[in-house]
Amino acid sequence: xWELLNVIGTIAFALSGVLVAMEExxxxxxxxxxGFITAFGGxxxxxxxxxxxxxxxxxxxxxxxxxxxxxxxxxxxxxxxxWTLLRRGVFFDAIGLGAFSVQGALYAYSMGHPxxxxxxxxxxxxxxxxxxxxMLAGRKPLFLQKExxxxxxxxxxxxxxxxWLTGPVELLTVVALVVALRLCSVYYGWRLPNRSI
Length: 197
Hints:
0% strand
């Protein structure tokens, strides 16, 4: 289950990074850099938060290969990923958000961390890569947009952190729910309350 979430999140965020890079008209190296940062940035932030050596990120050789192949295919055949109708690669970003937020919560829970750490790990793993991607691309980070974004990571953070949902089917259901809620928040313009001074 852990590896499945890793693969799903890595592919989705790598494609998200590629789409943003191509929209900004980056060259091939820029595409790879933005794609890798998007795919692995959240895990690095999470590891720093919960005390796991960041160096463990380099042990994921197979995932780096998967990301590299996916990004190369997307760059050479961009029409393959243009079928998504949502702006700025929101579809792939939503998949990455769902997979990595569940993975982050699961990781913290498996290490015996409290609920607060599971929630934080879910939020940072799910949004960290996208946040770094948008900052490097000179864009306003998606989690600061008006539509609900980072709040959806509370769902896996709480349900996994409390040990309510830990089975493979249950976790995939949470991933699908986060993806669906994120896409609905964009499509319908759902927003959290805000105030101005």
